[in-house]
Amino acid sequence: MKPVEPTREEFLFFSGPEKALFYFLAYLCLAYLAYQIVGRVRLWLQGKPVDWYKTRTGREYWMPTKAGLQNWVGNVLTYVLAQKKVRSSRPKSGAPMHLMIFYGFFTLFVATTLLAINTYSPFKFHKGTYYLAYEMVVDVMGVVFLIGVAWAAIRRWTHLKDELGQALNADPKQQIQRRRWPMSQSANDFWTLGLLFVMGVTGYWLEAARMSAHPEPFDWSSPVGHLWSTLQGPYGPPAYKFVWWFHMVWVFVFFCVIPKMRLRHVVMAIFTTAGKSDRPMGQLKTISMEEVEQTEQIGSKTAKDLSRWHLMSLDACMECGRCTEVCPAWNVGKILNPKQIVQDVRGAMQSGAELASAIGEEALWACTTCNACVEACPVLIRHVDVIVDVRRNLVSEGQLSGSAATMLRQTASTGNAWGQSASNREDWMKGLDIPLCRDGVEFDYLFWVGCAGATDPAAVKTTRATAQLLQKAGVKFACLGKEEACTGDPARRTGEEFLFQEQAQTNSSKFEKYGVKKVVTTCPHCLNSLKNEYGEFGAKLEVVHHSQLLQQLVSKGALLAAKPKRGEVVFHDPCYLGRVNEESDAPRDLLSNEVVEPEHTRHKTLCCGAGGGRMWMDDHPEQRPSNRRAEELLATGATTVAVGCPFCRIMLGDSLKQARPNDEIRLLDLAEMLHQANGAE
Ligand code: SF4
Ligand code: SF4
Questions:
Q1: Any ligand 2 atom below 6 A from CB of 342
Q2: Which secondary-structure segment (H or E) carries 137?
Q3: What pLDDT score was predicted for residue 184?
Q4: Whole domain around residue 463: which residue ranges?
Q5: Same structural domain, 199 and 237
Q6: Closest residue CA from atom 7 of ligand 1
Q7: Which of 327, 382, 387, 575, when mutated, tests ligand 2's pocket best, judged by the most ligand atoms within 8 Å of its CB?
Q8: Could you count the other beta carbons within 10 Å of the beta carbon of residue 490?
Q9: Whole-Å CA distances, 531 to 110, 301, 575, 661
Q10: Domain count, the chain
Q11: Which of 123, 372, 491, 602 has the greatest number of C-beta atoms within 10 Å?
């Protein structure tokens, strides 16, 4: 007898009317799904057109350019298929569990698509060796998927208990906010996970029922279904059909409810990651005066003022909480919860409510713009864009008061965020013979000192050490001295966009006047603005952090690296260097890589709490991010904390003293350590 070729008959035992009923229900379901999708698309289209979808003439286009399309494909491959962000998150964040669910689900999705192509197209490939391999892969990945789903449910249950415990111990003012997250999320989560689990298990039951009703010699290629079928015994056609319909009901429910569940991120993540902006993490979007004249407002008041991409990205949120887990403000008990912000803006997109009241002003001002949430988000949501744009609106309406408002006034009147006069910017130079641009000296690097570097007593030590190292290594550099003015970074991130733009124009004109091409700075906030944001104001600069230039000088042999004792030094990565500008090797190289690493390190560093204008805002003593970071740094057992940012130095200085009033903990900038290693007295 000729052996039977392995394959599977679709709609086994089904009559014509039964098939017609299936198609009727399937189309009904898909129509409902399409109706919901149209509703969501309408909400996204309220937003502003997205720049990178526009043609050169400014006309909005439905597709990006060819180069844009390549980016789309690259982003989807990197962030969706390769799961870059999920893989790089900590195992504690449930990364392995998520990967099991994703790759299990993805395999089942591809398998179903292939089956549909085989059934509804002239190409009949679902047979022979291909069929056997197909069945084996689907069966194994189905188990991976179910283990991932069960793991997620257990994890959610454990977290729910922990979160409720924490919420009950939290500040009473925050209890409502903190409770709202676990309770609302958990109900939705258990329903979602339950649906996935039922679909997976009934899928196996259906497979087993087919084998019980219509056994074939090649059923071994689906080991799970085969074992189940052996255990349950023979089935007649009615029993098989019952299981078929039972499974299909859950599949129909899945398609009807997916837009309402956070599971929608499976689809939405593809669109969000594909269309993500090429704008670097540290670059905020510039507002033009024409835009203000047209809209008669600054920043975002309602969801309509955000871009369509931003609105669409809200629907991609999987509510995983990774953003909140890493938020320095949330972690010291503040009301700011980036995940909740995404949900609040999503709610405002539907209701039309004002964003500031939907999010809450206290939460908006608590953000340090450290970008930890942006870095952690698997679907690339840009929380900081939204927060700063709402701040812009609040500032334009006079809703900012206190010391941050004073900082803005000082920057506007003196060009220094601390209100020091321009003449003080040269005080740090005493006894060092620093070349000045205005004297017509030739230079390769402009040494950009910054407001803190020029006037804060601790930061001045860094500035002097850096200048002396550059002199020792023979680098031709010059400073602007009293011609230098604040980059405008604190103003921009506090929400005063046009003050930033004035500063950027003033400084850019100086760069042009003196032919500045390369800049070195000790401040990562200045670095970020000059490197990522000044380009729009005509300053095309090559900007490096002092650790990067010093690293080059060490590798050329012009300077010696520091050689701290093992276990003695811990390096605190500044957010705007390690995360936002992706430099974490240079500082370590300067210390001969003899550093102990704290829990949060490199691009996953923990913010000191100074960014986003927070340096000029008060914190409750119990809610200082710098205290938490200081504890973490000290937990390494190090006795020296090395820094690479004047802001971090100011914030950590107080916190280290408070944490160890009786211990001799040294707080030094990398430049000072290198200066000592190179013979400083
Ligand atoms: S915003 Fe991103 S990181 Fe935060 S909960 Fe949503 S998907 Fe997760
Ligand atoms: S930028 Fe930092 S402080 Fe602001 S919400 Fe994100 S993680 Fe929190």
A1: no
A2: helix 128-169
A3: 56
A4: 404-554
A5: yes
A6: 317
A7: 327
A8: 29
A9: 43, 29, 15, 39
A10: 4
A11: 372
